[in-house]
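Extended Data, panel c. Modelled sequence:
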Amino acid sequence: MNLQVELNKAEGFKNLELLAKQVVEGFIAGMHKSPFHGFSAEFAEHKIYNRGESTRHIDWKLYAKTDKLYTKRYDDETNLRCHIILDNSSSMHYPEADVFSLDRLNKIGFSVLAAAALMQILKKQRDAVGLSIYSDHYQYYAPEKGSERHHQMLLNHLVEAVISKPLNKQTETYKYLHEIAEKIHRRSMIFLFTDMFQTIEDDTKLFEALRHLKYNKHEVILFHVIDKEKELQFNFDNTPKRFIDVETGEHINLYADTIKDSYHQSVAKYFEALRLKCAQYKIKYVEADINNNFNNILTTYLIERQKFA
């Protein structure tokens, strides 16, 4: 199957699982120079060898290549619980798209394919995964499970998120993050895909909701999904344009160059505050630019997975 052809089909991702498999396979194929070399179906992952552990599962071939000791952690040793949270507000459907391609994904398309790729790895490792989707209401919740039926059900809901086109869907992200935090009781790894844009409450409530996700010693990774060229750098040509807030419907007519510098400074300041707050709350912050590939997403998972013990 050609990944590009499938993405170009109308109505979103019709074969999301196959797309996710190809993303993961392409990522693994490019890892031959990394400490994760050899990641395959026969074991779940490598972990650094600690002195005093049994030498039975040391990967000597990897040692010959890296001069470092790693052991293989097999599928039946893993018990990770992972919960994926997806922001499905109107702003996540920017830029508007009827046709998807790898070099033209909007924020929701990028997030859904990244989430499906993570699910593919979790499935391979027999780990449990759950899903929450929210916009102006809590749209969907599924607890962490590892069955094939559950996996397919989550994929279906991810596809629905891509093909839905919510109009003027604002979101109270802070409210639903609090609700999700109350639902996840056992220690889990939490992945949050959001652009962190909201129109109603101040930033303080949003940051407090992020901190709440750390409840019960969860490991939280925030994938800050943005169209960096447009939403941060404000790279538009200087012809007169009408800029519309997709969540409120409000608009303003202007020349991009008249506000580009001040806009960039304001948004960059907000993004930096977000990074600092995540560092303060010990939340992993990952910039997820939709114009880049998925390697940063999957590499982050592998690194954070090793820390989860």
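DSSP finds ten helices and ten strands in the chain. This feature is highlighted in the accompanying rendering.
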